[in-house]
Amino acid sequence: MSFLQFVRKSGENFDLNLFVLIWKNATKVCLTFKKLLSSSRSEFHSKDLVCHAEKCVVECIAQLKSYQESISISPNLVSHEIQGLRVLIKAINGIASCFIDVMSEEEIIMTWKLFGIFGGEVLKLLIQELLDSSLQSQLKLLYEEVQASVQKALSLSHFSSQEGKLEDFEVCFTDRFSELVSTHKAPHLYVQFLLAGFARFYVKSPAQDETIDCALRLRILKLLIKDYTEEYLIGRNLAKNCSRQISIETVLLLLLDGSRSSFVAVQQKLLQYTLQDTSTRDCRELCKSIWKQAMFIWYVLYSGFLAKQCRNEQCKYLGDQFVELLVDMTCGFTAELNYGPRMVSMDLLRDLHYYMDASQKSICITRIMSVVENMCSDGPSYNFNLTSEATIDLFAFFVGNNYFLSNVDNETKTEFVDKYLLMCYECYGTAVKILSDDKEVCESDDNLWRIVDVTLLVMKAIFCSISFDSDEVHHRDSDVYQVLQMTTPLLFQIVALIAGSNTQTRRIVKTSLFLVIRYDDGLKLNSENHFIRLLRCLRQFADRSTAFISTGFMLKFISDIHIPQDHNDTILVQTHIVHLFILLLSNEEWPSYFTVLNALCSFLLRSNLNLHFETFGNVGSMHKKNVITVVELQSKHMNER
After folding, report:
1. Largest CB tally within 10 Å, which of 92, 336, 524, 533?
2. CA distance 78 to 219
3. More confident residue, 614 or 365
4. Which pLDDT score is estimated for 439?
């Protein structure tokens, strides 16, 4: 091995031919004289070869890193380093195969350490993608060869029995191995690489007792996500990305490639890490990424572009089962699942919605609409409980993010509209009439307000799923459009009711104003005085100090109005707007104050109302400077026009 000093002479390039010659001959000598070198009388120690190999790996990796950072470098130099590493991994494999039966525990751990360093560093080079496509392909091939070498090393006689695999793996990888590599900059990445290698080897091994199978999968999962990943994800971005990639690929392997009992065991444990309060944010995000990848795999295998080649009913069953489980966890209130985990599962459902097929989306729709139907059927006498509340919260979550009917096939959407639109409109109209006629009921009947809330959400989900800008859609969905037009006056009515009562109905106000602002075609032209009615509602609503920020945001959304130049209308609108802003500016808390000033600036710059500072004469002196600045912005903008 003393010839290695001539491979990298000062001022000369890497001598690949000499490097290959040295390591090929070293491996041949080991194979030829294995019996002699393994005898107790021999002074040969395999750890010496391992140390030489580790030194060469570190040198080649360091050289590749310097090439990556270089602006212009010959592709041949990079290719030589990669080829040298490919020779090294074969040599390390040959040495391990020769002496595995006589290696001491220290030598075994050193060999695993070398595999870990090799794989972890090559992955970091690969994931940066700084080389051209041909060199990236060579690097990827090298990484696959390192992975294959780990598989081969695990299949050697030292790990011949299942108990031996489990016990030796635990000792080498969780205790002494982690101690040995603790001096390196990224020890956990090396450990994770080996964990991933062991997981691949184990999954491809002959099936064994289900109890042992589940226990070992859960042990690897714990090491990947809790003991290593959670601690290490606070590290640097490159190592963090590598760690994340290894964890996702390996956990997916443990989750998807095995018996039904092992799937259930890994699924439950992964869900526990996803939902439990003690998990860090990084850990939860990692778990959510794993679930998204799993859902995508199930979707592709069953109904995606591979459907004709691989129609896997088991994939569909697992995907349906998992969605149903998440819906149960989100909508069911139990002592074990508090608000935090429920919100995490709700967020996970939202992220997975894109990858759901028709049956999985149907699970969500059916569960939610069963509660809606019962509420509309029973009316105010409906027995509203915590489960109902959780289900409506999930519904509002989907509708608020426009996910409820997104990516749903036309047939399902049409059936949904035909079944629920008129029913919910009639329930909504009836509830609004009862609330308008009886002030006492308006103040006290929470169930009526809940019916208003849920029917509004259904109508919003339907309206948002249809593009009313298309003439074709106007004709095809004329019933929907007419219901939308009939709903608008009721929206003003319900907002006015809320503004004049003590009812806590923030979501109803938000949904109502959203529908008015988005779908009332004549609003910004003050058609039928709709804009003035909206300003009156906002003015009543702004009397509540808790609604200042919401009102400010609403004003910004309607700031591009262009009232026809009718003197009376202009004066009336101007009066309402000025009084509304004066009221909102009376709140000196910074978040509210900033939001209102921002809305005022947007209003003055985008609308055709020409306001003057004198119209704000009633505003407090401490706010005059800010208002003057905002009004001056409008004047400057008008002059530039």
Report:
1. 92
2. 39
3. 365
4. 74
Q: For residue 32, how many other CB atoms are within 10 A of its CB?
A: 11
How confident is the model at residue 368, as a pLDDT? 92
CA–CA gap between residue 230 and residue 223 (Å, rounded):
10
Round the average pLDDT of the chain to a whole number and report it.
76
> Two tokens at 537?
């509602």
Sign of CA dihedral 255, 257, 258, 261: positive
3-class state of residue 334 by DSSP: strand
SS3 562: coil
Task: Round to whole Å and give the CA distance between 337 and 322.
Answer: 17
**What is residue 337's three-state secondary structure?**
strand
> Model confidence over 508-551: pLDDT tens digits?
888 888 888 787 777 767 777 777 877 777 777 766 655 556 67
CA distances for 305 relative to 11, 253, 317, 320, 409, angstroms = 54, 21, 18, 19, 17
Question: Maximum CA pair distance of the chain?
Answer: 111
In Å, how far from its chain's centre is CA 329? 19
- What are the C-alpha distances in Å from 195 to residues 115, 169, 186? 11, 9, 15
Which residues, other chains included, contact 101 with Cβ-Cβ below 8 Å and sequence gap of 6+?
Answer: 38, 157, 158
Do 67 and 130 meet the contact criterion of CB atoms below 8 Å apart?
A: no
pLDDT in the model for residue 420: 94
Tell me how long the chain is. Answer: 641
CA contacts within 13 A on the Cβ side of 486: 14
Question: Helix or strand or coil: residue 214?
Answer: helix
Contact 501, 442 (CB under 8 A): yes
β-sheet bridge partners, residue 337: 334
For the whole prediction, is pTM greater than 0.90? no
Closest CA to 259 of 319, 323, 203, 324: 203
- Looking at the DSSP bridge assignments, the partners of residue 334 are 337
